[in-house]
Each structure stands twice: as C-alpha cells, then as structure tokens.
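Ticket opened by: R.M.
Priority: normal
Category: complex prediction / small molecule

The reporter submitted a protein together with flavin-adenine dinucleotide and asked that the result be attached to this ticket for the collaborator who will pick it up next week. Submitted input follows.
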Amino acid sequence: MSTHPTASSRTGTGLRVAVVGGSLTGPTAALLLQHAGFDDVTLYEAAPASAPLGGGLIGLEHSSLDILDQLGVPQDEFVRYDSETVMDITVRGRRPESEHRHLYAGRNTTWTLLHAALTRRLPAGTLHTGHRVTGMTGEPRRPLLHFADGDTAQADLVVFADGRASTGRRLLDPHRQLRYAGYVAHRGQTSSTQPGLQDFLRFEPSRSGMQFNVAPIPGGVDWTFYLGATAAQYSDFFGAPPTRRVFALPQHVTDTARAAVDTSAQQYLPDEQAALVHATGTRMAAAVMDIDPPTRMVWPVGAGHAVLLGDALAPVRPHTARGANNGIEQAAGLTAALTQHRKYGANLTAALDGWQHRHLPAAVAAVQLGPELGHKFGLDA
Ligand SMILES: Cc1cc2nc3c(=O)[nH]c(=O)nc-3n(C[C@H](O)[C@H](O)[C@H](O)COP(=O)(O)OP(=O)(O)OC[C@H]3O[C@@H](n4cnc5c(N)ncnc54)[C@H](O)[C@@H]3O)c2cc1C
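Result attached by the on-call engineer:
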C-alpha cells in the first residue's frame, strides 16, 4: 500500500486538487486548472490504460466549444463534420413522410475524438489510470481519497467527475439515486460511410415510443435507436438491470438485444436505415435514467472541500444534449472561482458557493428537461 504525497509538499499555488474521472469532464477540469496556473492537479481514472475505450456522437454548444478553444484545443481536431443542420424526418409506413430542417447552435464531435484531444494535452504524470476511488474520509484533516487497491491520496479539493454511477455522489449526496426511465438508447457504429450523409438526421416513426438518430463520424456512421424496454427486458438484453449496468459495452450486448433492435428497425424504419442497423457490428447501449435534481454542488470535507460536476452531479437524458456541455461549463466556472481564490485571495468557501449559485440552475433545468422531451417524443409512453 502506498500513500500519494500529502498537502505538506504543496507547491506555490497552494491548492492540491484531485480530479476523479478521466472521461470528458474530468480531463477538461484538469486542463483548465493547469492552464490557469494550478500546478498540483492529479486525475484519477478507474479504467486501466489498456481498457478499450469508445463512445458515440456528442453535440457541443458554442459555450463549450469556446471553452475548448480558449484551452488551445482547435475545433478541427475534434469536429470532423462541421454541418450545423438537423433534419427531423417523420416516417409513416416505413417511408419518410415530411422533413423539417433546423440549425443546431453548436457542432458534433464524438466521445472518442474529444477524449483523445483532451487527454493528449495532459502533462505527463497528471493522469493515473487504474485508480478506482472507493471512499473518502476527512475529519479533521483534508479530504483523503481511498482507492480499491488500498492506496490513498490527500487533496484540498476533490472534484468528482466520475459519471452517472458516481462514487462521489454516493458518498456526498446518497439520497439522489438513479431511476430507470423505461427506455434504452441503443447505439451502433459502422465502419463504412454512408455516401452523401453530412447532417444529423432524426427519424420519428409515426408509431410513438421510438426515435432513430444518425450522423456521420470519421470512417463510418453513428446511430442511436431509442426503444422502450422493461427493466427485466434490459437485464435479458445486457446481462444486468439498468441501475447496475447503466452503460452496456459491446461485450454486454447479447444476441437477444441485437435481434430485438433489428426487428424494430425492420418494422418501423425506412429500408436504408433498417439495413444500416442490420449491418452494424459494434453495438452499445445506455439505459435512459432519471434522478432528482441536485440541490447543491459543494460539500465541506474536513478542512477541505469536495464538488460534483458533469454526469456525477446531474446525469441527464441524452435528448437534452446537455450532459457533456454542463460538465465543460461547470469545469470552466469552477476554474474561474478557484482562480479568484488563488490570485486575489478570495475566500475559498465563498468562491465555491458563488460557483454553485451560478451553475446549479442550469443543471436542474437539464434534469427537468429530460422527462419533458421524452414525453414529447412519446418515449416514456
Ligand atoms: C446516446 C447519448 C447521446 C448523448 N448526446 C449528448 C450530446 O449531444 N451533448 C452532450 O452534451 N451530452 C450528450 N450525452 C451525454 C454525455 O455523453 C455525458 O454527459 C458525458 O459523457 C459525461 O461525461 P463525464 O466525464 O461527466 O462522465 P462519464 O463520461 O460517465 O465519465 C466518468 C468517468 O469516471 C470514471 N469513474 C467512474 N467511477 C470512478 C471511480 N470510482 N474512480 C475513478 N474513476 C471513476 C469512469 O471510468 C469514466 O471514465 C449523450 C449521452 C448518450 C448516452
């Protein structure tokens, strides 16, 4: 067992920051803090470095794109198709019936492109993979993180960006638990492109209770098919209930799940989309989940603090397209508050409270928007 250096070895900027979760929100927070002059930032990620990684299409709004720009991550590194067009297509009898075009105030990336763009910029020694946080103690000292392998690490501020099934949320806000919303975002990525596909297409079959989205990604096509499933069906499809397996990775997707998705595609989608689904080898899924809106983002822990951000704070339904955006905006706001503390001696507790005051309403709004959109699309019928 080893213990990472304690706060007594802190350097000039004063604050030792431990960020938990190395997906999107965590690396963004770590980079922003380092960019702002915090030189004692460590990022802990549960997955080992060798774990296969991947993820689907993510729409980023201008606020997030600008934060990444300011961080020196050029947009063309993570946006390969710069269309702003969204086509809503109603489908009747498996044929496109009408189309409505609108523009998205942002651009589409993929988890894979954005994760790579962020993590390749982390200075050596920042990211510790294979470090799963299991607990945190504080009194009367600074927060002490406990890891699955018995290691510990001390920090003045712990930033939990550990996603939908957050350990940080379980420790800090245990009453807010995930609830299954009754439908699944089945996802697929093809390794061949669809000629002419540039935009984000959203197919809405007239039979409510489903939606099919498709967009180009480098080297292929990314699709998401929202379909209803009981919790028992979800277990059949992916080997565990939705509250335990919030994401189903390719190795969890059973033949039963593949067949159910193919059958729905064949029954309700136009030929081209049904064929696309059928031909897709790599499949994943995300259970659509709800949670009570957060009432706070900051907690005192011993002589320090812990915060929740990104999906750890507020996992939102995918249709809101706000999950990654919230995480990036919260990370930038947190960096601004901490910079006021570091540069101008602002009271740290007040600075963190101010950050919470500014960012909590957007997180609450996104949590509340999810069921409204699900209802509008007929998905939770
Ligand atoms: C179908 C779909 C479409 C979406 N579309 C959009 C969109 O258009 N726009 C948008 O903004 N968002 C979208 N999202 C949401 C977006 O993908 C998430 O909000 C985003 O990935 C959250 O990032 P995160 O870093 O906060 O959490 P996560 O990506 O969940 O990452 C959490 C990380 O923490 C690690 N971890 C977990 N527990 C521990 C632990 N105990 N110790 C150490 N590490 C740990 C995990 O291994 C993981 O790497 C979509 C989601 C889905 C499913």
